[in-house]
Amino acid sequence: MLFFLFLCLISCKKEDEEKNVHKNLIVGFSQIGAESAWRVCHTRSMLQAANSNSIQLLYENAEQKQENQIKALRSFIAYQVDAIVFVPIVQDGWDNVLIEAKEAGIPVIVCDRKITTSDDSLFECYVGTNSLEEGRKAANFLIEKYKNTQQKINIFEMRGTDGSSAAEGRYDGFRQLLNKHDKFEIIKSESGDFLRSRGKELMHQVLKELEQENRMIDVIFSHNDSMTLGIIEALEENHIRPGKDITIITIDAEQAAIDALNMGKVNFVIECNPHLGPKVMELILDISNGVEVPKLTYIEETSFSQDIDFTKIEPRDY
Ligand code: AHR
């Protein structure tokens, strides 16, 4: 009897181990590039989390081109990886390659940015930021800040990459709440492609246009910190005090943006959390163990205003 129980225990343990054992998973990861400190941190988070879960990550940098991403995905399929993770640079245009992945039986995880697809079964799940919420946070900050003001508030919005879910969510969320208040007017909205250099160049151009049109802006809503840093440079070169003459809202919460907030050059920072690696690896292990995973996972995110205690903020790693 005792011997029988012993055999039973051994076989149950073995079964458990087989279920959870690392099967030397090989995962293809298509990243869009290294356009910002945020992105670099995101890549690092993925590589580190794969390493600590003994997952072999095949990393491909698409250098901001969707065609490179599609090529990378096809090479992962040919290689018969165990799973694919990709950050879609734009929302549309993925169906064909995802059908190929599905036919090859390879689960796909969409990370950071979302896709639009005719068939949701073409990807296993999404994990990343809630861009719509980020846009709403920006709007809520302005509604509160200007609650006692009757005058018109002119806004310039610098968007991220056109067609990306990050830019579209931020755009929509911002308007969802702001449109209910007549005093706010988005007088200009242009894409700076999430790049610092473009942000600076575009800000110079917009300042010239405003001068010619004899108009002023009260607020800048910038879709990411990289562009914001460029915006600050351009404003200062035009003797405009960022954060004082113009209210500035930015997204990502890089260390440089927190420092700018502390110096009074930025008024509100909305965190976009790049530390997605551990969650992605957890989902990959679950999928490979046959565990059902949620279709949508939003990562925890916060925001920072000028009245916080800066001594309590942990140094950011991006
Ligand atoms: O998709 C997330 C956005 O992409 C981040 O806000 C930005 O910095 C990055 O380039």
Q: How would you state the average pLDDT, rounded? A: 94
In terms of structural class, how would the helical and strand content be classed? alpha/beta
Tell me how many strands there are: 12
Low-confidence parts:
1-21
Rounded Rg: 23 Å
The number of helical runs is 10
Which range does the strand content fall in? 15-25%
Largest sheet: 6 strands, parallel
Topology as a string of helices (H) and strands (E): HEHEHEHEEHEHEHEHEHEHEE
Distance between the termini: 60 Å
Percent in helix = 40-55%
Bound molecules: alpha-L-arabinofuranose
Quick take:
With 318 residues, this protein is of the alpha/beta class. It is built from ten helices and twelve strands.
Would you mind describing this structure in some detail?
This protein is α/β, with parallel strands linked by helices and 318 residues long. 43% of the residues lie in helices and 19% in strands. It contains ten helices and twelve strands. The chain has helices at residues 2-20, 37-52, 66-79, 95-103, 131-145, 165-178, 196-213, 225-237, 255-262, 277-288, and strands at residues 26-31, 56-61, 83-86, 108-112, 125-128, 153-159, 184-191, 219-222, 247-252, 268-271, 296-298, 303-305. The strands form two sheets. A six-stranded parallel beta sheet has the order 2-1-3-4-5-11, with helices on both faces. Strands 7-6-8-9-10-12 form a six-stranded mixed beta sheet, with helices on both faces. Residues 1-21 have low confidence and may be disordered. It binds alpha-L-arabinofuranose. Alpha-L-arabinofuranose (AHR) is lined by residues 35-36, 38-39, 112-113, 166, 194, 224, 226, 251-252, 272.
